[in-house]
Amino acid sequence: MIDLLTPEPADTASPCVGVCVLGDDGLCDGCWRTLDEIAGWGGASPDTRRAINAALPARRAARAAQP
């Protein structure tokens, strides 16, 4: 049974901020995930979610560094 009252740990919670627009690089402008990562989030394991969340700061920095 899923407990909807207990918050999900921050390292596996969705990074979605409701800005669902894909940039030319294939990353969402709001959460920095790919379309495949967004679509598969509900079925992703906690380890996969952690790995995606861990990659997001580098993606954001890479986009910010582009001219």
Architecture blueprint of SSEs:
Blueprint: H1 35-40, H2 46-65
Question: In brief, what are we looking at here?
Answer:
The protein is built from 2 helices and no strands.
What separation lies between the terminal Cα atoms?
48 Å
Series of secondary-structure elements, N-terminal to C-terminal: HH
Number of helices: 2
- Tell me the Rg in angstroms: 13 Å
The low-pLDDT segments are none
Structural class: mainly alpha
Main β-sheet description: none
Give the overall pLDDT as a whole number: 90
Features:
67 residues; mainly alpha; 2 helices; 39% helix
Structure description:
Helices cover 39% and strands 0% of the residues. It has 67 residues and is mostly helical. It has one domain (21-67). It is elongated and about 45 Å long.
